[in-house]
Amino acid sequence: MTAEIGQYCLLLALLTALFQGTLPLIGAARGQGLWMESAIPAGRAQFIFLALAFCALINGFIENDFSILYVASHSNSALPLYYRIAATWGAHEGSMLLWAFILSGWTLAVTLFSGGLTPVFRARVLGTMGLISFGILLFIQWTSNPFLRLIPMPAEGNDLNPLLQDFGMTIHPPMLYMGYVGLAVAFSFAIAALLGGTLDAAWSRWSRPWTLVARIFLTFGIVLGSWWAYYELGWGGWWFWDPVENASFMPWLVATALLHSLAATEKRGAFKAWTVLLAIFAFSLSLLGTFLVRSGVLTSVHAFASDPARGLFILVFLAVVVGSSLLLYGLRAPVIRDSTRFTWLSRESLLLVNNILLVTASASILLGTLYPLVLDALKLGKISVGSPYFARVFTPLMTPIVFLAGIAAMVPWREGQLDKILRPLLRIALPVIVLAVALSLLVDGMSDIATLAGIGMALWLLATQGLSLWNRIKHRQSLSEGVSALSMSFIGMNFAHLGLAVFVIGVTLSGSHSEEKIVKLAPGESASIGAYTFKFGGVHAVEGPNYHAQEGRFDVFEGNRQVAALTPQKRIYQVQKNPMTEAAIDPGLTRDLYVALGEPLDKDAWSVRVYYKPFIRWIWFGGLLMMTGGLCSLLDKRYRIGSRKDLTLESQRGA
Amino acid sequence: MTPRRRRMLVVSLILAGVGLAAFFGLTAFQKNLLYFLTPSQVAQGEAPKGHSFRIGGLVVKGTVRRAPDTLEVHFDLTDGNRTVGVSYTGILPDLFREGQGIIAIGKLSETGVFEASEVLAKHDENYMPPEVAESLKATGQMPQPPEGTQK
């Protein structure tokens, strides 16, 4: 019965979305107040319908209702309850429903926190979101209905992909989707602004917190995905430049550019047209990501089915969204005038450099990701782009970003004086170089130029950041007064840039000083890596709720002192009969020790992978710091409820 | 310097930077392109010499042989028409099994053995990388999916 309720709610949501996507927009064009207001109840009703539909699907999983095709294909009664619930978004149909549900959640949020927007603007934002939702819901209903019945009902389900039976993987998709879909809000704000022709400071101030929230979630989703790949895939890597990873990274890069550009638009009224374009690109890349991951054109754990109708639908949808928004942009952008001038040495121009580099990086990744697909679609041969391409292009583009990130905060808006900026920089340059050399001597006797460069860049970023912080507080009477006078968005920026520095250190040290050994070990034998000795204690059988496992034991010694006992597993899940490697990791602030079982060889010997990964955790710490920065900025006074009234006035004056 | 001159200087510097970036980017792109070939294509000598490429096919049953003391593995890869020997040192992925589809990345040696640096067994629910499925369909060697699986 619940499947029918879910189906019914899905159809109701589809109709509501159509309503929400048309009437308010027409009302806004014709000045009909009531039509415009109808967007609010429509958005809320859509949320309720989709929440009910989503709960109905979860219920199917909880109750092991294998008469639902989707449940039968992706669950099993032996699967623990927690994973049964998470299995709801473990495959294509359910995850698309999650996408739509999250979009309705964002819509609800806009209806709740939009008191300060003018009715016309709000109607346009909600109307645009309604249209997006309509497209996605039509897609679900037409090609990916999760509520289809399977008759006759099988006695048992086909189980969830074992790779996805993991904590990190259960929250990775919802977080990533919160980010993807959150960019739909920034997109809708941009479209609404283009429709109305009002690109003022109020618009960017409104857009900014939504973009911030979306990017916080997107960062978290990517960090989780990377962390999961590290411990679950058993290869010890944290990023593979896999097309699916690229699909989430491209919108992140553009959203980052958008945040920086929004800052310039809000504070100085600069780059208005460019900012709008970035908002359009960011959401288009999110849609493209959904298309790449869900259409089955890519081979990966994420690609569930290759149904050409799905791919075609998303491709057409993508073309409509990108095409119509770029058309609108083309019609409206020429009338947008920036209300400011700035010289080459100003924060505006440095933000522009940041934007150019981020967008170029995103475009290079897009080239490497899409080129093989285009070639294949045109039947010109099957190729793929090796991951060295991405690393080689990405690193030189990111280097100037790290170099300039701290400096940009010191350079004033509009016009800076070269000598005033250069003097303090020259003063810190020597200490930074000396410290970088000293640290690099300590790490590897300065044998690796990449390590020296990476440490140097991270230190430079920290030093320039410290300098800009000092500039802000030095004129105050006391340190505490200076610190308390800092705005939350400035503190947020510092956290985010600190995250960047931490990330650079993690990437550098784990990249150039990881050690890996693949060895054959019999019980009692040991393998040494760096200062650590891994002693293999043999393998014994272990039973899990829905799998059998072979569990190995490794005692890890540093000299004579035991530092860890690791128990990696080789699991066979009962339903799908696929073997799965569960790596065992001894985490640490400065190093991870990592063991994964390979295959059983003759007698009791196993092939084993052992890794020593220095500073690898710093990569994810960096991501978490960036999220913290986003949260701080969100708390800035400018975005508080109380400041809404001035915004309304401002935007009315602007309009 | 007049502002106009300065602007020209900045613009030309940006252009030079972009041009340089594009040059390096495209060179890196060219160098890292990996072609996908079937065992038949390799047997007909279409494999690029001294350059990495990807090969995909089914692992022939009963051909997986391990060296006694090292982690070296040999197996044959087929697309139904022709077969190519593959050698690999390391740990095979979890989903590697005889009779199933895999993709290997590496180079062809002088003796015609494919020396793999990486073996991938990522697949969809039908245990088949799409490239391999397509080449098998072309030769009419696509195995029927087992009973009871949907789609």
Give an overview of the whole structure.
- The complex is a heterodimer of chains A (655) and B (151).
- Chain A has 20 helices and eleven strands.
- Chain A is an alpha+beta fold and 655 residues long.
- Chain A folds into three domains: 2-336 and 345-386, no CATH class; 417-514 and 623-655; 515-615.
- The longest helix of chain A is centred in the first third of the chain and has 32 residues, at 201-232.
- The model of chain A is unreliable at 299-305 and 642-655 (pLDDT under 50).
- Chain B is an alpha+beta fold.
- Chain B folds into two domains: 1-33; 36-139, Beta Barrel (OB fold (Dihydrolipoamide Acetyltransferase, E2P)).
- Helix content of chain B is 29%, strand content 28%.
- The longest helix of chain B has 29 residues, at 3-31.
- Chain B is elongated, with a radius of gyration of 22 Å.
- The model of chain B is unreliable at 145-151 (pLDDT under 50).
- Classes of the chains: A alpha+beta (655), B alpha+beta (151).
- At the A-B interface, helix 13, strand 1, helix 14, strand 2 and strand 8 of A face helix 1 and strand 1 of B.
